[in-house]
Amino acid sequence: MTSNERAAQRVTALIADAVAKGARLVAGNGKAEEPGTLIAPTVLADVTPDMAVHHGELFGPATSIYVADSDDEAVRLANDTPHGLTAGVISENLAAGLPVARRLRTGIVHVNDQTIGDEPQAPFGGVGHSGYGRFGGQAGAESFTDTRWITVQSEGHAHFPI
Fold first, then answer.
1. Which of 25, 51, 67 is the last residue of a domain?
2. Among 8, 65, 90, 147, fewest CB within 10 Å belongs to which?
3. Cβ atoms 78, 102 nearer than 8 A
4. 138 within a domain of the structure (yes/no)
5. pLDDT tens across 9-26, in order?
6. β strands within the chain, DSSP E
7. Does residue 127 surpass a pLDDT of 90?
Protein backbone atom coordinates (compact mmCIF):
# COMPACT_ATOMS: atom_id res chain seq x y z
CA MET A 1 0.00 0.00 0.00
CA THR A 2 1.21 3.51 -0.73
CA SER A 3 0.36 6.64 1.23
CA ASN A 4 -1.83 8.24 -1.45
CA GLU A 5 -2.88 7.92 -5.09
CA ARG A 6 -0.08 10.15 -6.34
CA ALA A 7 2.49 7.93 -4.62
CA ALA A 8 0.83 4.85 -6.13
CA GLN A 9 0.99 6.41 -9.59
CA ARG A 10 4.70 7.17 -9.11
CA VAL A 11 5.46 3.59 -8.02
CA THR A 12 3.42 2.00 -10.82
CA ALA A 13 5.08 4.31 -13.37
CA LEU A 14 8.55 3.22 -12.20
CA ILE A 15 7.52 -0.44 -12.46
CA ALA A 16 5.89 0.05 -15.88
CA ASP A 17 9.00 1.82 -17.18
CA ALA A 18 11.18 -1.06 -16.02
CA VAL A 19 8.92 -3.72 -17.56
CA ALA A 20 8.71 -1.78 -20.84
CA LYS A 21 12.52 -1.74 -20.96
CA GLY A 22 12.90 -5.47 -20.31
CA ALA A 23 12.62 -6.05 -16.56
CA ARG A 24 10.81 -9.22 -15.59
CA LEU A 25 7.96 -9.35 -13.06
CA VAL A 26 8.85 -12.17 -10.68
CA ALA A 27 5.94 -11.48 -8.32
CA GLY A 28 2.97 -9.11 -8.36
CA ASN A 29 1.71 -7.10 -11.28
CA GLY A 30 2.91 -3.62 -10.28
CA LYS A 31 -0.49 -2.03 -10.82
CA ALA A 32 -2.61 0.00 -8.44
CA GLU A 33 -5.96 -1.44 -7.46
CA GLU A 34 -8.98 0.38 -6.05
CA PRO A 35 -9.08 2.60 -4.07
CA GLY A 36 -5.92 3.60 -5.94
CA THR A 37 -3.36 3.20 -3.20
CA LEU A 38 -3.19 -0.59 -3.08
CA ILE A 39 -0.36 -2.22 -5.02
CA ALA A 40 0.31 -5.93 -4.73
CA PRO A 41 3.87 -6.64 -3.52
CA THR A 42 5.97 -6.62 -6.67
CA VAL A 43 9.41 -8.08 -7.36
CA LEU A 44 11.41 -7.15 -10.46
CA ALA A 45 14.38 -8.99 -11.96
CA ASP A 46 16.70 -8.14 -14.86
CA VAL A 47 16.70 -4.43 -13.93
CA THR A 48 19.32 -2.39 -15.80
CA PRO A 49 20.78 1.11 -15.26
CA ASP A 50 18.65 2.58 -18.09
CA MET A 51 15.49 1.95 -16.02
CA ALA A 52 14.35 4.74 -13.70
CA VAL A 53 13.73 2.23 -10.90
CA HIS A 54 17.45 1.34 -10.88
CA HIS A 55 18.49 4.77 -9.58
CA GLY A 56 15.26 5.80 -7.81
CA GLU A 57 13.72 5.14 -4.44
CA LEU A 58 10.43 3.25 -4.72
CA PHE A 59 8.90 3.87 -1.29
CA GLY A 60 6.23 1.35 -2.18
CA PRO A 61 5.65 -2.42 -2.00
CA ALA A 62 8.16 -3.28 -4.70
CA THR A 63 11.79 -4.27 -4.95
CA SER A 64 14.40 -5.27 -7.50
CA ILE A 65 16.54 -8.39 -7.35
CA TYR A 66 20.07 -8.23 -8.74
CA VAL A 67 22.42 -11.17 -9.22
CA ALA A 68 26.09 -10.49 -8.50
CA ASP A 69 29.02 -12.82 -9.06
CA SER A 70 31.18 -11.32 -6.29
CA ASP A 71 31.06 -9.11 -3.23
CA ASP A 72 32.75 -6.34 -5.20
CA GLU A 73 30.06 -6.47 -7.91
CA ALA A 74 27.28 -6.52 -5.29
CA VAL A 75 28.73 -3.44 -3.57
CA ARG A 76 29.14 -1.66 -6.93
CA LEU A 77 25.51 -2.38 -7.84
CA ALA A 78 24.20 -1.31 -4.43
CA ASN A 79 26.21 1.92 -4.47
CA ASP A 80 25.20 2.80 -8.06
CA THR A 81 22.60 5.34 -6.94
CA PRO A 82 22.53 8.86 -5.55
CA HIS A 83 20.30 7.55 -2.74
CA GLY A 84 21.34 5.71 0.37
CA LEU A 85 18.68 5.25 3.01
CA THR A 86 18.93 1.63 4.09
CA ALA A 87 20.37 -1.65 2.89
CA GLY A 88 20.44 -5.27 3.91
CA VAL A 89 23.14 -7.90 3.57
CA ILE A 90 22.07 -11.52 3.87
CA SER A 91 24.93 -13.95 4.39
CA GLU A 92 25.51 -17.39 5.83
CA ASN A 93 28.89 -16.10 6.96
CA LEU A 94 28.82 -13.03 9.23
CA ALA A 95 32.58 -12.64 8.87
CA ALA A 96 32.01 -12.12 5.13
CA GLY A 97 28.75 -10.13 5.43
CA LEU A 98 29.98 -7.44 7.81
CA PRO A 99 32.80 -6.15 5.54
CA VAL A 100 30.26 -5.90 2.69
CA ALA A 101 27.91 -3.92 4.95
CA ARG A 102 30.71 -1.49 5.84
CA ARG A 103 31.29 -0.71 2.15
CA LEU A 104 27.67 0.21 1.39
CA ARG A 105 26.96 3.95 1.18
CA THR A 106 23.75 4.03 3.20
CA GLY A 107 22.72 5.57 6.48
CA ILE A 108 21.64 2.18 7.83
CA VAL A 109 22.76 -1.36 6.99
CA HIS A 110 21.18 -4.47 8.48
CA VAL A 111 23.09 -7.75 8.34
CA ASN A 112 20.82 -10.81 8.26
CA ASP A 113 17.84 -8.67 9.27
CA GLN A 114 14.99 -6.74 7.70
CA THR A 115 15.65 -3.26 6.33
CA ILE A 116 12.77 -1.60 8.16
CA GLY A 117 13.98 -1.80 11.74
CA ASP A 118 13.23 1.52 13.44
CA GLU A 119 14.05 1.75 17.12
CA PRO A 120 13.62 5.03 19.04
CA GLN A 121 17.27 5.15 20.09
CA ALA A 122 18.63 4.38 16.61
CA PRO A 123 19.87 7.25 14.41
CA PHE A 124 17.52 6.69 11.46
CA GLY A 125 18.44 8.52 8.25
CA GLY A 126 20.18 8.19 4.92
CA VAL A 127 23.08 9.57 2.92
CA GLY A 128 23.21 11.26 -0.46
CA HIS A 129 19.76 12.22 -1.75
CA SER A 130 18.02 10.14 0.92
CA GLY A 131 16.80 12.73 3.32
CA TYR A 132 18.32 15.26 5.62
CA GLY A 133 19.81 14.53 8.99
CA ARG A 134 18.80 11.83 11.42
CA PHE A 135 15.93 11.29 13.76
CA GLY A 136 15.84 9.08 16.80
CA GLY A 137 17.89 9.24 19.97
CA GLN A 138 20.75 11.66 20.60
CA ALA A 139 21.75 11.65 16.90
CA GLY A 140 18.32 13.03 16.01
CA ALA A 141 18.62 15.89 18.46
CA GLU A 142 22.13 16.71 17.25
CA SER A 143 21.06 16.57 13.61
CA PHE A 144 18.64 19.44 14.10
CA THR A 145 20.73 21.43 16.59
CA ASP A 146 23.53 23.95 16.16
CA THR A 147 25.77 23.86 19.20
CA ARG A 148 26.94 27.33 20.17
CA TRP A 149 29.05 28.73 22.97
CA ILE A 150 28.32 32.20 24.31
CA THR A 151 30.27 33.85 27.11
CA VAL A 152 29.38 37.01 28.99
CA GLN A 153 31.65 39.22 31.11
CA SER A 154 29.25 40.99 33.43
CA GLU A 155 31.55 43.75 34.72
CA GLY A 156 34.62 45.43 33.34
CA HIS A 157 36.96 43.65 31.00
CA ALA A 158 38.19 40.13 31.05
CA HIS A 159 41.50 39.72 32.88
CA PHE A 160 44.14 37.79 31.06
CA PRO A 161 47.26 36.50 32.80
CA ILE A 162 50.47 38.03 31.52
1. 67
2. 147
3. no
4. yes
5. 888 889 989 999 999 999
6. 24-27, 32-33, 38-39, 42-45, 62-65, 83-84, 86-89, 108-111, 127-128
7. no
